């Protein structure tokens, strides 16, 4: 997987200079490059590179904020996806004192990239006013703007500034999400589900309230609710399991759990298999968990889904899975005794230890 920070590479900087100069012929590209301090570029993280570009633009564009925005609005359509977060970042850094102009700019820029991070300081500045704006955006014709309404208001947005008030009391977010519960865009629905999943981690009763009101009203809504419950389902929450038809697993029997090899090196893979047999017709959710050894020797469990299916009375099913222990940017492995567990409808049915060396 390519390093995300390489999104902001020298080729992008060359394109940025070209498109800014097309809108602003007086742009001083030499001053812009000097401010970037390219000799230290390789050591910078993704966000550090982005912020240095933002600062360099500020130093070389007109100091009048509205004039600079006009130039950036003409430039932004040429930078889509991750590279386009430069433009909302400019608004975040320099636009808090220009509410109306900045809100319009964030609505525009998000249609090419995302303004989800840039709206966070505006929530901190005036939550009531920004929540009202997010509700307005939730009815926008453009799916990227509707998604911004949900993603920007997430209590626990990854990489985003913390909003303590919404972590403590996420109820102001619910009217925004209710506008989007039947949204035709999967892009938007994923964001709504992620927002509700955030809420469920500290306020599960609020997700229950939403589910009571909305579950069963529309296929799009049902998808959102199911995806929003993923953390509670992985925790084996009985109410969550019952909502989706997963009874207790007393009638499910697990046999012959094996894993090989019992000692693996970091970078190798573990293969495990097992059988399940049922005494009655039943809906089953089958997961496995691994207690990973962490850097300081403590262990932390991660749950992985295998399948959600139906099993008939006296039926036997077999499963085989492979778990890689190759280091990733999101997970580093450490030597020590790990534990593999098979979970059915929230209940651990069997476990095995294995060693990572």
TrEMBL record:
Transmembrane segments: none annotated. SUPFAM superfamilies: ARM repeat. Pfam families: DNA_alkylation. Gene3D superfamilies: ARM repeat domains. InterPro entries: ARM-type_fold, DNA_alkylation, HEAT_type_2. This is DNA alkylation repair protein.
């Amino acid at each position: 997987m390519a390093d995300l920070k390489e999104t902001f590479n020298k080729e992008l900087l060359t394109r940025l200079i070209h498109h800014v100069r097309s809108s602003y012929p007086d742009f001083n590209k030499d001053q812009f490059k000097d401010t970037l301090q390219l000799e230290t570029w390789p050591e910078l993280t993704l966000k550090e590179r982005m912020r240095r570009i933002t600062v360099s633009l500020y130093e070389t564009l007109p100091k009048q904020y509205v004039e600079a925005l006009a130039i950036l609005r003409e430039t932004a359509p040429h930078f889509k996806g991750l590279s386009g977060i430069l433009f909302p970042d400019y608004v975040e850094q320099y636009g808090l004192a220009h509410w109306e102009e900045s809100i319009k700019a964030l609505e525009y820029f998000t249609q090419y990239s995302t303004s989800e991070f840039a709206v966070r300081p505006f929530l901190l500045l005036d939550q009531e006013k920004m929540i009202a704006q997010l509700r307005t955006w939730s009815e926008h014709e453009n799916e990227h703007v509707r998604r911004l309404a949900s993603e920007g208001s997430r209590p626990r947005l990854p990489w985003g500034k913390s909003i303590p008030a919404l972590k403590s009391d996420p109820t102001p977010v619910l009217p925004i999400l209710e506008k989007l519960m039947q949204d035709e865009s999967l892009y938007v629905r994923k964001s709504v589900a992620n927002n509700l999943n955030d809420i469920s981690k500290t306020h599960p009763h609020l997700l229950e309230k939403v589910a009571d009101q909305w579950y069963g009203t529309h296929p799009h809504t049902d998808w959102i609710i199911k995806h929003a419950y993923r953390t509670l389902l992985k925790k084996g929450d009985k109410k969550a399991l019952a909502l989706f038809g997963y009874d207790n697993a007393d009638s499910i029997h697990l046999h012959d759990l094996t894993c090989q090899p019992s000692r693996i090196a970091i970078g190798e893979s573990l293969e495990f298999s097992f059988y399940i047999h049922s005494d009655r017709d039943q809906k089953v959710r089958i997961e496995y968990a691994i207690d990973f050894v962490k850097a300081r020797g403590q262990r932390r469990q991660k749950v992985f889904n295998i399948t959600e299916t139906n099993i008939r009375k006296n039926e036997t099913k077999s499963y085989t899975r492979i778990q890689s222990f190759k280091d990733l940017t999101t997970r580093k492995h450490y030597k020590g005794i790990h534990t593999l567990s098979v979970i059915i409808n929230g209940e651990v049915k069997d476990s095995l230890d294995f060693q990572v060396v």
